[in-house]
TrEMBL record:
Protein name as it appears in the record: tRNA pseudouridine synthase A
Pfam families: PseudoU_synth_1
Catalytic activity as recorded in UniProt: uridine(38/39/40) in tRNA = pseudouridine(38/39/40) in tRNA
Originating gene: truA
Phylogenetic placement of the source organism: Bacteria, Pseudomonadati, Pseudomonadota, Betaproteobacteria, Rhodocyclales
Enzyme class, spelled out: isomerase
Keywords: Isomerase, tRNA processing
Job description of the protein: Formation of pseudouridine at positions 38, 39 and 40 in the anticodon stem and loop of transfer RNAs.
HAMAP family, A to Z: TruA
UniProt family annotation: Belongs to the tRNA pseudouridine synthase TruA family.
Active site: D67 (nucleophile)
Length: 281
């Protein structure tokens, strides 16, 4: 029997997980005996829940791996179902097996040609930063925070200056395993709404820590420690060690993954706006 491939839209609170990817068990020595434990990951939670519904092992592939503390409103995965199940089983049934910090938003049968990662044409991220003197409480873990006033105008100019195709070596993590540092940035925008700064980025793909490193450099510009030309200078230097520190993960959201319309995937909910969660009056 041929397996049916399914695509799922996923959202999760990254603060509850040690990143996307399942990790090897860690070993601690207690009373002279080695004891292994596995850190919770999004992949591990999803595969366990799907396997419960399928009553057989299920492996998943995601559109983009997220780090510890990074959230998602529009992650996309695919898996090959070893059994026939209705769409409701892969949404409501799986959600009943998942921790509350992770949920399936939709499920769609797709052809075996579909690949969550390689069929994607782009990814979209949003970073939420609360810019006020007082630290976060209600939004702790859900947004970044910076206490000194930030000037959004040079930050906006700097963000616009890096649009296009570039070598982003200055903004990749030292442990990044991507074969090439070249990426095409199609959106790079910083706006202010009251005390909130919203960073929007879209690209064909991103390097490890790339967005958090971009935000860190933009904050350096916003607090007046560097001119807007810093971004162009860093791109030219191609040296991560010369760049500002990586910013905290708390405010980063994977909001959408782009696919050709021919795949017939749902569009509603893919580009959820995390800022609306905090839009209290």
């Amino acid at each position: 029997m041929s397996l049916q491939r399914w695509a799922l839209g996923i959202e999760y609170d990254g603060g509850s997980f040690h990143g996307w990817q399942t990790q090897a068990p860690t070993t601690q020595v207690v009373d002279g005996r080695p004891i292994g434990s596995t850190l919770p990951t999004v992949q591990g939670a999803l595969e366990a829940a799907l396997s419960q519904i399928a009553d057989a092992p299920v492996q998943v592939v995601c559109a983009g791996r997220t780090d510890t503390g990074v959230h998602a409103t529009g992650q996309v995965i695919h898996f090959d179902a070893p059994v026939l199940r209705p769409e409701t089983a892969w949404v409501r049934g799986v959600n009943a097996q998942l921790p509350y910090s992770c949920a399936v938003r939709w499920a769609q049968p797709v052809s075996t040609d579909f690949h969550a990662r390689f069929s994607a044409t782009g990814r979209r991220y949003r970073y939420l930063l609360l810019n006020r003197p007082e630290r976060l409480a209600l939004f702790s873990g859900r947004a970044g925070w910076f206490h000194r006033p930030l000037d959004v105008e040079p930050m906006s100019h700097a963000a616009q200056s890096i649009l296009g195709t570039h070598d982003f070596s200055a903004f990749r993590a030292a442990e990044c395993q991507a074969n090439s540092p070249v990426r095409t940035l199609t959106e790079s925008r910083v706006t202010r709404q009251g005390d909130w700064l919203i960073f929007d980025f879209a690209a064909n793909a991103f390097l490890q820590h790339m967005i958090r490193n971009l935000v860190g450099a933009l904050v350096t510009i916003g607090k007046g420690e560097a001119p807007a030309s810093l971004m162009i200078e860093l791109l030219a230097q191609k040296n991560r060690t010369l760049s500002p520190p990586t910013f905290m993960p708390d405010g980063l959201y994977l909001t959408a993954v782009d696919y050709d319309a021919g795949w017939g995937l749902p569009t509603a909910g893919l580009s959820g706006d995390p800022l609306q969660i905090f839009n209290f009056r």
